[in-house]
Predict the structure.
Amino acid sequence: MASIAGKKSGLTWAVHISVAALVLLWLFPTVGLFVSSFRSADQISSSGWWAALFPSQQNEVYRTSDPDDTRVAEGDRFVVTGNIFEGAPRDILAWGVSSRNIDAFQPGDTAEMKDGETVTLQPDGSYVWSGNDKQISGRGQRIFITATVPPEFSLENYQTILFSGSGQDNMAKAFFNTLTVTIPATIIPIVIAAFAAYALAWMEFPGRALLIAAVVALLVVPLQLALIPLLRLHLGIGIGKGYMGVWLAHTAFGMPLAVYLLRNYMVGLPRDIIENAKVDGATDFQIFTRIILPLSFPALASFAIFQFLWTWNDLLVAKVFLIDATGSTTVMTNQIVELLGTRGGNWEILATAAFVSIAVPLAVFFLMQRYLVRGLLAGSVK
Amino acid sequence: MFTDNPALLGLFTIVFGVGACLGYFFFSNVILDKVIFPARGPNAGKNINRANMVRPWLFLFPAIFALTLYLAYPVFETLRLSLTDRSLDGAFVGFENYRKMMNESKFWEAVRNNMLWLIVVPAASTAFGLLVAQLTDRIRWGNLAKSLIFMPMAISFVGASVIFKLIYDTRPADQNQIGVLNHVWLKFDGGVGSILMLQVLPTLLYLAFAGIVAYVAWLFAKDIIAKGQDRSPWLLPLRLLVAVAGVWLVWLSVSSAVGVWIVELPYGEPQTWLTLPFWNNFFLMVVLIWIQTGFAMVILSAALRGIPEETVEAAIVDGANPFQIFFKIKVPQIMGTIVVVWTTITLTVLKVFDIVFAMTNGQWETQVLANYMYDKLFRANDWGIGSASAIIIMLLVTPILVWNVYNARKEMK
């Protein structure tokens, strides 16, 4: 294309710019979630995440150290000294001692309060708070500052979500539950589908065409139809709601695509290899395990990725076949939906939880993208 | 014991489940060859042939079993359930459930919204996908751009819902907006920028959409008028349908384009996007479009690569401009792929439940069929109506099913 004569360079620039715009538009939402997951609750609610990437003006509240422990007598007065920034200095623009007037003073000023109580705040954050016995007691004096804050990110939310959070805020268990659902539900259908695909591709038997047509038809059957009959069946035969049921369901629901993808691929393998092996006395089982399986690796990999992404991201099947009344088998997607209901405003929790759940698929996606694309092309355009 | 520890249980099942699978295939073959039809003795040759007749079914059995039990049987069982009433102990009630369902306004709301989804999401995803595929085809960093646009495919619908809820977030007017949509919205004040962004741009988009729809509908419809060639009779209703739908869509978008200039917009007030009736549907659709565009792009860009260069070069020699090359040379050649992408996304749309469930749960007139069905089945516990709505979804995919099978059979011959 690029070498064709008559191409205008002006248009090339337009193309570059529009692609860049589209890419940014598509990335923007995910980046927002990613950035938010590193911000504290206060930061998230005080400014948009896009502002977090630049230094910003913020209002913050600090408290002097506890006067009952740290006050020092100076004549008939008591004094508390210290620094409001413990190790994280800020550029103070203005400050105040009352929530109604938070920018009353400049750094270095002394605030005169009732009955001779004073607070002095230096630009570096060190303060002197002095007054009589009654004034310098109880809790520390609040100091409001308006400061320029550099972009600031922390891993605290991840700490909460993965390790220290309690109850709904802790995703560790849900993470393992998801993993427990996903791995068997990815491997087992591959094994079963590979054998079936081989039979449909290379073995002669009556009814083969009909079976292939049935697989193609089942590709589009919405799994919503399966919910009630199979839930009844599972309850009836005693599997109930649990891992067993969800594995079986995922195995079966992934089966049409698996058989279809793998058969399409296997049909394309060279006939000579298989016939030679047969002449040499190999059984179908041997041909399958020694020749077909290794050759089918790209197709197996692409289906594995699909099935992995699908089971990892699934909500409906897990909700119906897995999660029971105790909720101990909940998966991440379900936990996030519940968080959306109960903690809809706590974006630090929500964003981090969502990012934890999409991190693994994203990693798989970027590592295995080649196979994913190959699978899509084999499965959809045929 | 270890059933309490999901990690151990998982490990155990992986070993046990996969082992059982492999064991089944291995031992069933061994038994077939060594015990039932041994390849020795007087009947050796005959036995080998008999074993080879049985073997395909050994290979196929687990797959057929799973497919039949989990996909084929439920179709009939759900159909049966939709004709019975659970509260009457499963008595046969004919079409009573369907009648009740049709009398519910929530059902019609779901159908209406689903129709909107079915038009907007596949159209927008395919259009965006085609646009990106075409644009990235020529540039050096195209592959990077493609994989970034493809990335949402890996994100769960639930994850995407959270992502977009943050975008649509609303805070009171006197606070900083943390949702980017409201942040941008508050920048509009009725000045020149607002007119450009909120009136001129949407008008252009509507008109462009109308133009594309008209063009596609014309492609389909012109054969009704044309004579001869390969006019198979069963395509006629399809063509008529597309033509009628096309005219309706064009009218809809032109009237919307006019509407943009009439409506009075509430400038300067933060909006709760997800509770705006009618429009909130589109805010939900954006999530699915965002996810599905990558899919459309990957397949369409492969199709674009497959176009013979000679046809494009010939067009250039004849003096075609880039737009003519795209619309008159490339698009007609990949029409088949476009249809496949369109139908695949249509299937996804019909089944999608997570987005609505997570973002609005069908409130504020955003109900769709899949979520309506879930509501009936597991909240209202009404299996009859739930099954009936599942059957409606099945009915909607049936044309695609038939078409798929028809294509697959044609290909195998």
Q: What stands out?
A: Chain A touches chain B through 120 residues (CB under 8 Å).
